[in-house]
Amino acid sequence: MGHGTNRVEDMTSPNTATARETIVEIHSVCLPPKKTTFQKLKKRFADVFFPDDPLERFRNQTWRNKVILGLQSLFPIFTWGSQYDLKLFRSDVISGLTIASLAIPQGISYAKLANLPPIVGLYSSFVPPLIYSVLGSSKHLAVGPVSIASLVMGSMLSESVSPTQDPVLYLKLAFTSTFFAGLFQASLGLLRLGFLIDFLSKPTLVGFTAGAAVIVSLQQLKGLLGIVHFTGKMQFIPVMSSVFNHRSEWSWETIVMGVGFLIILLTTRHISMRKPKLFWISAASPLASVVISTLLVFLIRNKTHAISFIGHLPKGLNPPSSNMLYFSGTHLALAIKTGIITGVLSLTEGIAVGRTFASLKNYQVNGNKEMMAIGFMNMVGSCTSCYVTTGSFSRSAVNYNAGAKTAASNIVLASTVLVTLLFLMPLFYYTPNLILAAIILTAVIGLIDYQAAYKLYKVDKFDFFTCMCAFFGVLLVSVPLGLAIAVVVSVIKILLHVTRPNTLEFGNIQGTQIYQNLKRYREASRIHGFLILAVESPIYFANSTYLQERILRWTREEETRIKENNGSTLKCIVLDMTAVSSIDTSGIEALFELRRRLEKQSLQLVLVNAVGSVMEKLHKSKIIESLGLSGLYLTVGEAVADLSSTWKAHGQPRI
Amino acid sequence: MGHGTNRVEDMTSPNTATARETIVEIHSVCLPPKKTTFQKLKKRFADVFFPDDPLERFRNQTWRNKVILGLQSLFPIFTWGSQYDLKLFRSDVISGLTIASLAIPQGISYAKLANLPPIVGLYSSFVPPLIYSVLGSSKHLAVGPVSIASLVMGSMLSESVSPTQDPVLYLKLAFTSTFFAGLFQASLGLLRLGFLIDFLSKPTLVGFTAGAAVIVSLQQLKGLLGIVHFTGKMQFIPVMSSVFNHRSEWSWETIVMGVGFLIILLTTRHISMRKPKLFWISAASPLASVVISTLLVFLIRNKTHAISFIGHLPKGLNPPSSNMLYFSGTHLALAIKTGIITGVLSLTEGIAVGRTFASLKNYQVNGNKEMMAIGFMNMVGSCTSCYVTTGSFSRSAVNYNAGAKTAASNIVLASTVLVTLLFLMPLFYYTPNLILAAIILTAVIGLIDYQAAYKLYKVDKFDFFTCMCAFFGVLLVSVPLGLAIAVVVSVIKILLHVTRPNTLEFGNIQGTQIYQNLKRYREASRIHGFLILAVESPIYFANSTYLQERILRWTREEETRIKENNGSTLKCIVLDMTAVSSIDTSGIEALFELRRRLEKQSLQLVLVNAVGSVMEKLHKSKIIESLGLSGLYLTVGEAVADLSSTWKAHGQPRI
């Protein structure tokens, strides 16, 4: 790169005299408007907890309107209920019945996944949808038990308490965990800490869900192969060894029937995925399979006993279970831990599903309010024999495709489950366990999103790494630990970015006032006497030492380069602070130290375009005064122009 | 703020025709030069682990030079040893003797602080300085036991093992902790993970040190009041209640003598602080006090037994202690934990002290190499009856003021301790414990840096909060927990900044191409049809949802504002990405979603000046193609000029 002797001239050459004067006109860097600490705290507090400005709608309203708006915001049913008509009702009935046909077999299946009695799955498909329809702000969320939360609850609780040997304690723990899940969810919403679930990033969730889906699928081998003595563990290796060590228990009748229905279910799912209009095929097939397989087992009931079936299920509505909550004793910690983890996971799923469909129909789902709705739903659920529920992705998709218009479809769903609980329970007597396994398998296979993982691999290797950590963590270590590993890896990524920020050398793009990265813009070139560096991160205790050393190294390298090219001496380090969005006291001290050390080498340090909060701290710490008048500029261009002209005026060698 | 109808004209008005053409000339945004994943990983790896480019000096050297440079870099003694002369030696002898006079009484005192036999403090002032003089790269560091690490070791170990009831096990654990401290320190250096100690930010250290100093001071009440039965706890409340519950044990002779010497020591310290030239007064006063008080106790030994004294100390050099290291058993976890915490703390102190004096004399101290030196010193120390040592701030300051020129002053120090160990031990028989308490008190009172805390309060409230967390955490909870709380608070600050980043509305400063924060620069004004927003943080999973919602809220608010002012319609959202130093897949998805939702409102989304790595990911994820040609600009000015002219060309209402 050739370096002309009058770079500064070059720089301004395309704009003639008038333009150059404009350049040397220097704009002072303003301090932000003065605010008291209280005002700043208030703003910061509002930013963190009320980014959506929830009171905006209430401003300039009469008292009556305020009350109505308040009621509507607490109970969204008031918002849509007043405009509800027959047409909306027709849509909701159709979609409600469709999701019910899916929810009943899935409810039974997922309860088994959580090692709970199948009837609890139906109970959980009755009360929670009713509550959600009153409190929830999503129009398409179909509420009920979901696979991931069921799996996690099952795996965490059964590590300490055996669901077969101590079923009552197990049930108690399940309801207690549900209560704590709800409490945790509602608190997150109430304290407006909903942003905490953002820390479960998409890559984490893709990996975690896929890992959990694999685990769930492997667990289904028990039902699909007819194995009686199966391991209670969840990890890949013990499950696989359990499958092959019990080969004598494999039952060919179960395998034939199970695989047959599995193929049917997968095929109907495939058809519906290809043609969303045919959503009803995959929506109806689980119930149809249940009916057909139950009939089949009923018909051959005297010929073979190889196929295990559900057996007796109690008739009647949800019994109250508040007396089963468990607030003391050795397992309380386990219940709380399980509650928090299933709570976070089900919340994440519910919010994500709600947001997805809201975005498709262009309406807003308020995260914090949804959390309160889901949390309250689970707290009530825990007192009415329900376990953790949330919005399920598969059923919500069916709901959406079936044309649901309001949360009333959840009422239709609940009513259908009500009828089932009251009258149809005996029909499930001969329902074979293998069909439940097939239904679960079909549902969870769709959760293995290898395309998303491939996209992560292509776009962002680190995100892919996080995803793999979650996947293998869940598969090989344990479900909660896998999740924890992935969250820690995501946080480390943020910290690493802050600890080792980029510093870039800028140059001027000839004929403009634009200064850009020298490595990226070939047309950019260095300016004699200046080293222009941009720091791409806040300056914090975690990186202040690094940045100080790195900038000194840039200076050394630049001086070596100049010496090799026989250029003129370096005089000034310009630090572009545009991307330094924040600074703390360690950062300020590093700047002080940097200035001191550069001064010893007769180099000037100039700061450019410090943002408001940084500027304020620089001012308070008196560093600005110590930099002097020519230590602070609004743009790199102004700094370069002004300093060059000063040097010229002082009769230094022309640059 | 009045809004003219031809804002765009206004904007360019000071520069006449030629200038405007320059503006409408659009510079394309470049992708960074292509690199393979391996190259990127390599660069990232080098940035994280080798920011100082340690092999730089070895390039273009002959083999012989490379070997010499290698030896010098492993053993800094080769660097200064070859140029060592009599003049340097004279300076080092003076400073070495001065710090020895301080190190001997402090060594004995600090060992008592760690609940160890006083002689271990002298052992620890002999071997470690010798090793450091060979390996260390600081010229002024005076090595030996320090108060904070002694306190932490004492408090952590005595929680599980009583030093009076089981002294051998206690001693074993102390040596084992020292070994692990050294191992941990050396590993940090070897694995180049030194940056981890940066997470102990200055505010954390100010608060932690002050809290620890208060605890240490309170502990000295035992010696100063002559209490025999003192609590083993460290927290403020139990210590104070112990002091007042044992009022019957207070001994007036001890109190009078102790307070007398304390006043002398504090006065001499004060004089030396006022006049650094008189450093020798405070350096000599501890030894003088020890001598005088020992004499006093010797003289009154038959008259009173109220004053307790050290008693018999073994003569002779450090006995080997490698057989006392303890690598199995119930207390191993405690030893490792204590080792890591004391290791981190002593490392932080050593590195900080080294850097401070290096910066005063303008030489470099290599962090990772220092860690290896300190770590190796402690590992050897643990095998020669030493406990954790590092560079002490107070003694290094004396060393510096006494004119130390090289690490040879540590050799002089060690030789003096050698003579003491071999011949002078019986002289300490009558040294009263109260004088040790007074020496410790004088040393630690200086650690309470209330001025630094006040400065934190003035400049950065959050840093002050971190500092207070550390202070009260140490004082009221426990030493390691207080430290952990403060580190977590510091990390949360970083995460909070990332989770809730600033978004700013920009406007044009009339007559320039500068776009700046509207709230801060009064002369900046909005441009019709545009909403220009700057995002001040990387876009990550932790903030992508927030940013998306926040930008949509900005849009809503801007539209309301326009409606109120009867302005022309909003057409375009310009997102200035200059400060977005990084993006991940969640961030990209948020941008996609944002664009989709803005499009539904017939608003265009334009990205400006995406930095290299962001640009690359935008490119890979195809978002750039979906934004179209006019979706990406290098500067806000170019975006505004180009889009306005396009709109005009398409015959839309003139803006």
Automatic annotation (TrEMBL), chains A, B:
Task: Indicate the segments forming the STAS domain, all copies.
Answer: 520-643
Q: Which GO terms describe its cellular component?
A: membrane
Q: Where is this protein found?
A: Membrane
Protein name stated in the entry: STAS domain-containing protein
Q: How does it sit in the membrane?
A: Multi-pass membrane protein
Query: Sorted alphabetically, which keywords does the UniProt record give?
Result: Membrane, Sulfate transport, Symport, Transmembrane, Transmembrane helix, Transport
Q: Name one Pfam family in it.
A: STAS
Q: What is its main location?
A: membrane
Record-level Gene Ontology MF annotations:
secondary active sulfate transmembrane transporter activity; symporter activity
- The source's superkingdom equals Eukaryota
Q: Which organism is it from?
A: Brassica campestris (Field mustard)
